[in-house]
Fold this sequence. Notes:
The protein has 332 residues and is α/β, with parallel strands linked by helices. Helices cover 40% and strands 23% of the residues. It folds into two domains: 11-138 and 309-331, 3-Layer(aba) Sandwich (Rossmann fold); 143-303, Dihydrodipicolinate Reductase, domain 2, CATH 3.30.360.10.
Amino acid sequence: MRKKIDVSIMINIAILGFGIVGSGTYDLTVENAASIEKKVGVPVRVKKIVDILDFSKHPARDLITKNFDDVKNDPEISIVVETIGGTRVAYEFTKAALLAGKSVVTSNKALVSEHGLELTKIAKEKNVRYLFEASVGGGIPIIRPLKQCLAANEIEEIYGVLNGTTNYILTKMRDEGTSFADALKQAQDKGYAEKDPADDINGADAARKINILSWVAFGELVDYDKIERRGVGDITPNDIKKAKADGVVIKMVARAKRVDGKIVCSVAPQRVPLGSPFALVDGVQNAIIVRGNFVGEVMFYGPGAGGRATASAVMSDVIEIARNIVAHSKRA
């Protein structure tokens, strides 16, 4: 059974990784503290932040530690937010937190795609939660709608523009005639792209995201290595000009659908007609279309990159877990 947690004062969370998303999550908890408290019923505060870098000048410096054990061994911390990225340290810390009886919220699509099944199983065994709304689509709500609002449908297909970095680059190339290299540099300067943008450019990031969506929608996690993908690194300004002349735009589209009883996922640049809703999805915006057998096509649209947008999705999961903890505590 889940141990009773005294939430008469507040719910404490910890943030692992204090980069763009981690710091955005901290800022959101501070700026929206009053509204979050109203939604949860008690205050939600960040008690610890784990990062190996120096943040001695940050306003939250007194909360920062380099030792994950300070989180794992703290019985007052009930929710851990993992924004480290990657699949080595993040996996180790996430698994340890779940085994310690703490719920975990993540924005880490690589970790969910590779270890989501195992981590979800551990969370269930420990009677805690492992939630990952922020792993796909930045600030767009999509995981929870698939699990809840569209649950009555047989999902037939999901496809979308899932990578804000490449969409930003392709938009700059189309609208301003910018070279691929210059558009990428602008994306990095604005914080839309990592210093090493390889996973964005070669389609790996979008492949992980469509893999997660297919898991949620179809109940099966496709072998990542079997996802067909082609990136945008070889698209030239001439390709963009030719697309314009043909009345289409180039978008990198990720797709998951059932084919002959199997789930097939793919990522590739596609020529999208100007009449398509995707043609209007520019900059770092993402769009996801879900086709269900009763509802038809439903489109989700919004910011797919950036610390604040992703932090919004992170905190939606935190609030859901916090509400459940409070409700459970009142019943206990």
